[in-house]
User: What shape does this take?
Amino acid sequence: MSTTQIKFYQVGSFAVGNRLLREDERSVQSDPERTNALTSGHRACQGCGEALGARYALDAAMRATNDQLIAVNATGCLEVFSTPYPESSWRVAWLHSLFGNAPAVATGVAAALKAKGNHTTRVVAQGGDGATVDIGFGALSGMFERNDDVLYICYDNEAYMNTGVQRSGATPPAARTATTQAVGAKPGNVFGQGKYLPKIAMAHDIPYVATATIADLRDLEAKVERAMTMHGSRYLHVLVPCPLGWGSASCDTIKIARLATQSGLFPVFEAINGEVVASSKIRKKVSVEEYLKLQTRYSHLFSPQRNDEVIDHLQRIADKNIERYELMGE
Amino acid sequence: MDKPYAITLSVGSSLANHTGSWRVEHPEYVNRMPPCNKACPAGENVQNWLYIAEDGSYEQAWRELIKENPFPAIMGRVCYHPCQTACNRSFLDEAVGINSVERFLGDHALEKGWKIDPPEHETGLAVLVIGAGPAGLSAAYQLRRMGHQVVVRDATHQPGGMMRYGIPKYRLPREVLDAEINRIKEMGVIFQLNTRVDDVHDALEEGFDAVFMAIGAQLSKRTYIPAGESARILDAISVLHHFEDGQTPMLGRKVVIYGGGNTAMDVARTAKRLGAEEAIIVYRRTRDKAPANDQEIEEALEEGILIKWLSTVKYMGEDDMMIEKMALDEKGFPQPTGEFETLEADSLILALGQEVDFSLLGNNVDLDVKSGVMDVDTNMMTTHPGIFAGGDMVEGDRTVTTSVGHGKKAAKYIDAWLRQTKVEAKEEKDAVAFEDLNTWYYTDAPHAVRERLAATRRVYDFSEVVQGLDESTALYEARRCMSCGNCFECDNCFGVCPDNAIKKLGPGWGYEIDLDYCKGCGICVSECPASAIEMVSDL
Assistant: This one.
């Protein structure tokens, strides 16, 4: 798929909409008639990144499939805040079963559609990082292995937020959570543990793996759209900051996601059949410190005294990402 | 309704859950002051007309612009654009070329022949404007729009004031000047040229309900210079004035100009175009202290004009002169050094500033003059009720744009005075700072440069030096505007709300916050590129 660079100067392709663009060049989110797959009244916290990420992704998937979409949801914040019995915030066919079985349920839905001869309705499965990298990991790996026709979207907020901010396999090193307290010689989550699911997904050689953040809407929408042009197992990993768990201001949710990409800590890239084919270049490089200091889960790195050793270590991780995913452009 | 096994409640939408009740503060759309608007001496709403021009609605943009200033094509040539100095974009890459877009709109309007609508109704009140310069014409234009009968009197035989007799045509072609003044004539403003007003009081007795004086500052300041009998000493204003009237002054081959203001630059550049082999400017202070606009100094230097900084004229003879070198003392004032230099010079032109000719005040003492300018109150009214003044004859920067601003302001207060109403005081707002913007969303786009004639070519004639932009470049330039402090409908707020609590009302209508669902997170405020939303407490 070729992407056209939008030639517009006042606001480039970075803002949500643009009155000077043709209708068909505008983002899904700029459309007053967008699905609003996750509608108002949901019980997510103020400034929730996951609520935003889910609406961005599913609205784009709805447009890409002409509204012929079924979403399967794992247990987690997204499920709990959207569907307290008997209310639902979903404006898309939506199904929840258990914490660990969303990929398997989605596989079943896809198989059922096939058995019924329905070739137009598509399936999305979604969950948080806990359901994806830990609890549902076996089911997900199986779904990848069988190359079932499902787009799996992980909204990564880097811990179990719904149950009170416990560490997950996606929690970054040095971050404080309820189970990795900022105490002892090496405060916060340990270095050298955890797993990076996009690379594990790529190792299954599935057709499409991509990462995205809520800080670059048009990139996220393009990736959902692209995934929907393909069949087989596809995986999208979206960084969604959590004001509650990360200890950040509710108004800074998008800013923090942006700093995660501009520092290199969260590389944004695309892989086809297990090979990285493109990465989003850093526009305004920042040090990891700018990203860390907005979040109280890292406050122990700055007070009572600055921990240069750990900050430098995190900076090295970011630098490594920049090199590995070629994030600096020409 | 029959419910499945173990289900007791019917499915409902979360829309029943009004999360707005969680909130302690909410966002509100605001219109803040863009720095360009704040800096404009004519009070133009720059951000607004740039916004309108961005989608190619040039006529609408032009009509918005001329609400404040009837001379966009002139402004686009002679304004020193303080708006661009203030532009926040200069912190990102380069300031928006506001002046070049203004010129494009002005030229485009002339090309298309767009007219100014006549007033909808006549008030039956009559105002006399004395002086057809930028202040007088601006006041006449605004008063006519308000429906008043306006008569403009000027002592010269052509309208324009210093725009004609002070600014050379290589900066302001006369077709442009004439065309923009003509539009004002077509609105029904009556011009009485070659008509000198000897006493302003007589005018009120003639039956005018109010008078606006804007005669400028036409008298050249003089200084005592010891001179030989046949020394040729002229003043800059007369040189420019006579040349405009077709009388080429005898300047000789080597011309020295004394002074460091814009008039000195203009007269030196004119002398060069008239065939002077050498035009030398002598100024007693340094370049950074010179009152002339830096671009004018630069253009003069490019054209081969020599400038002797830190020098004063000691003696003027028949074909040579003596200057003395100066040095700045610790307070920054120039002091004589006793070091002299002789220059060849056929004529010396004085450009040492101008003073107001107060002869039109008559013998009556009810009009106050303070420090060489008319004393006016904040309503631009003199100490005589019904007589207002503006432009170079009152205190302020002596530029065309400031004069246009004076004319507009005076018209507003004259109108209020005539109708016995009050002008509503506008609150002074702080300009939006660069730090207030979220510049992530603006892509990099450097400034489009206007072409200029090569210096070697331009000293031979009076062709316009600075060229205009074509449409696509002007559009590009307009679109570089960051719309500081004012919504430009980028949909960011509408997109980034995690609660769908923002409604998009359609083109031109902006957005509305749905307070039933807004949780008050403030993401819309931090992600607004233009700083056009603010958080307001609900408590």
Q: What stands out?
A: Residues 400-419 of chain B form the longest helix (20 residues). Chain B has 18 helices and 22 strands. Chain B touches chain A through 55 residues (CB under 8 Å). Chain B has a mean pLDDT of 92.
